[in-house]
Amino acid sequence: MNFDFSDDQKFLKSEARKFLEARCTSAVVRGVLDDPDRSYDQDLWKAIAAQGWLGAAIDEAHGGLGLGRIELCAIAEELGRSLAPIPFASTVYFVAEALMLAGSEAQKARWLPKIAAGEVIGCFATVERPGVLTEAAVQARVEGGRLTGVKLPVTDGDIADLAVVLAKSGGASGLYLVELAAPGVERETLQTLDPTRSAAKLTFNGAAAEPLGEAGDGMNLAETLLNRAAVLLAFEQVGGADKALDMAKAYALERYAFGRPIGSYQAIKHKLADMYVKNELARSNAYYGAWALNAGAAELPVAAAAARVAACDAFWYAAKENLQTHGGMGYTWDVDCHLYYRRAQQLGLVAGGAKAWKERLVSSLERRNVA
Amino acid sequence: MDFNDTPEEAAYRATARAWLEANAPKRSGGRAESDLDDPSSMDASRAWQRKKAEAGYACITWPKEWGGGGGAQWQAVIFGQEESGFDAPANPFTIGLGMCVPTVMAVGNQADKERFVRPAVRGDEIWCQLFSEPSGGSDVAAARTRAVRDGDQWVINGQKVWTSGAHYSDFGLLLARTDPDVPKHKGLTMFWIDMKAPGVEVRPIHQMSGASNFNEVYFTDLRISDAQRIGEVGAGWGTSLVTLMNERLAIGGGGGASHRQVLKLAREISTLTGLAAKDNGLREKIADWFIQAEGIKYTRYRTLTALSRGQTPGPESSIGKVVGAALMQDMANTALELEDQFGIISDPASAPLSGAFQSALMAAPGLRIAGGTDEILRNIIAERVLGLPQDVRLDKNVAFKDIPTGR
């Protein structure tokens, strides 16, 4: 039994934390939050690329560090903790994974080294309307190698170079690579609940679209990618939830009311204890997800769903109760509580909401028990 | 026990509705947020208040001699219900008419009442409440803003925070420390302040929702007359309790997104197993929310019935807020989850129901804190309603200046 990061992974994680504590301060996050013309922090992105993190799970032959998914999970946790305002998730958890999962040798050779070097930003475009992603709801279509349709919201769609798009050809769904600087692509930045993570409406009008993976396999591939991303995002959520708990604890120790620190009141103690328990359960489920992801295990659908739902619950609770613990100050723009509150929503929705994942989890359990 | 209108109530309702139909703008269906910083919006609000006052529909339960309607609580309830069906302008008068001016009427002298009540009822003057401070929000009795006697004047120095509407208010109800050497509850005095006086500085607070509806208010050597004192020196705490109890009644109504809106959304959205409106899990939640919201509404009716029988609003009115605020937050989060990836979009032009759930998500945290946090309200219910023993207190029989503050 070894259900913890290895010493090397712990070292990587603590170095990542130090790096981000220095390079991704609250001011850096707010620099993106407060400026409508900034979708991400370019300097931070370059610095992270220089660390090699973008290629942590990409093999050395394709310009990566050739470490593995567990290392990527460790990095993800620290990125989540620091609220890094960069397109890491879109590029690494979705587009790099899509290439590694379904790309041809030519596609991998063309794109993975650029991703690892931080030269290409990716985005994953699936939904077109409110509600869970379903094959029936996909209207975007590819005919003769040309994509037509509208996708929104596409996280990082406004800054990405390369999109992986779920569309239909001849009625069957598939994934497609689309270079967003090419003709036939219009993008409109969207106003969202978390301005530190940008999103766009992408309108395609005959844009060149190259198949990624087998025709007709679009939904299966998308679901596999969502499972993988769910685990990695769960680590970001756990990182954010832990930071929210740290903030709540620090404030509870320093803030006095009625002559005592507010942390001496049972209501606050119980609240923070509940945060701790949810965070640890989410962490444990995320670890199992990390194992399943790294091992390519058949358990991944269940593990990923459990990791995602636990992490969504933990981060939502931690973020809103951290804010509550801060009282009126927590409701102000200048105190960081709302940054975690917004990111909890963004991470809770970007790979689909917890309700759908609960349904997928039970469906997977039913299939597993029948087999 | 009767929720139907008696013939008398039905007649009043019909009259009120006819008056509103003749005088109020119709509800358009999606009300955009009025900006009270915009002069024309404030003008519209004042004009509407004046119109109601002239017809006896402003402050319906207040005596006619003070510009009120001289009517009964049931009339105020009915008029309020009818008014909510119309697109009335934003109301910046609730703090003044709901909390500050009732305090003046309860504790102030005849001169205070003659000066302040009628103009407030007519919407000519607006009030704000100057209680909370950076060092004491829940702990309002720990107010540090100092009022030092100087002949027949007082000199005020200090800072208030979370003051809604201070930027457009004419007057403020100020709770100040007049004696730091006695236990905290005994060293407070209430005053009224001219918000436009030199020595008063209002600075907006940027809220997490993006708006700035409340403020910090700084007092620097503000000189006021002893005639501006409301009640006895050292009696401020008792007076503030009158204000705070009315505040809970005013805020306790809930609001924001409703179960009806969730159902509307659910009819247009699919889950993995079909139409969201048919989803059992969601249907159970909608039932729970409805029951909570209706429970809050009918609990308010019980409170209003008690009021109309001459009883003072008790701590039971904390129920509305402690349930309503968390309900709003839970409902918004669930609705966003239902919208799935799309839920992150907050632009009212693109988001379902004009972004009602996104707005509610960002407003709900404030409601769980303002007017008594969830935690404080539960303590009040436990201690003042149920009679459970208070926590051991370190701040009750100690001179205010000796209470630990961690600094």
What does this entry look like structurally?
The complex is a heterodimer of chains A (371) and B (407). Chain A is α+β, with helices and mostly antiparallel strands. Chain A has helices at 7-23, 26-33, 42-51, 69-82, 88-102, 105-116, 218-254, 266-295, 300-325, 337-350, 354-370; strands at residues 122-125, 141-143, 146-155, 162-169, 172-179, 185-189, 199-208, 210-212, 256-257, 260-261. Chain A folds into 3 domains: 7-116, Butyryl-Coa Dehydrogenase, subunit A, domain 1, CATH 1.10.540; 122-216, Beta Barrel (Butyryl-CoA Dehydrogenase, subunit A, domain 2); 219-370, Up-down Bundle (Butyryl-CoA Dehydrogenase, subunit A, domain 3). Chain A is built from 11 helices and 10 strands. Chain A is globular, with a radius of gyration of 20 Å. Chain B contains 11 helices and 10 strands. Chain B has 3 domains: 7-91, no CATH class; 127-236, Beta Barrel (Butyryl-CoA Dehydrogenase, subunit A, domain 2); 252-385, Butyryl-CoA Dehydrogenase, subunit A, domain 3, CATH 1.20.140.10. The model of chain B has no long low-confidence stretch (mean pLDDT 90).
Mean pLDDT of chain B: 90
Q: How many domains of chain B, as an integer?
A: 3
CATH topology type of the largest domain in chain B: Butyryl-CoA Dehydrogenase, subunit A, domain 3
Oligomer: heterodimer
Helix and strand succession of chain A? HHHHHHEEEEEEEEHEEHHHH
The total domain count of chain A is 3
How do the helices and strands line up, and which of them pair or pack?
The complex is a heterodimer of chains A (371) and B (407).
Chain A: H1 7-23, H2 26-33, H3 42-51, H4 69-82, H5 88-102, H6 105-116, E1 122-125, E2 141-143, E3 146-155, E4 162-169, E5 172-179, E6 185-189, E7 199-208, E8 210-212, H7 218-254, E9 256-257, E10 260-261, H8 266-295, H9 300-325, H10 337-350, H11 354-370
Parallel strand pairs in A: 1-4
Antiparallel strand pairs in A: 2-3, 3-7, 4-5, 5-8, 6-7, 9-10
Chain B: H1 7-23, H2 39-54, H3 73-83, H4 94-107, H5 110-121, E1 127-130, E2 146-150, E3 153-164, E4 171-177, E5 188-194, E6 200-204, E7 214-225, E8 229-230, H6 236-251, H7 259-266, E9 270-271, E10 274-275, H8 280-308, H9 318-339, H10 356-367, H11 374-385
Parallel strand pairs in B: 1-4
Antiparallel strand pairs in B: 2-3, 3-7, 4-5, 5-8, 6-7, 9-10
Helix pairs in contact in B: 1-3, 4-5, 4-6, 7-9, 8-9, 9-10, 9-11
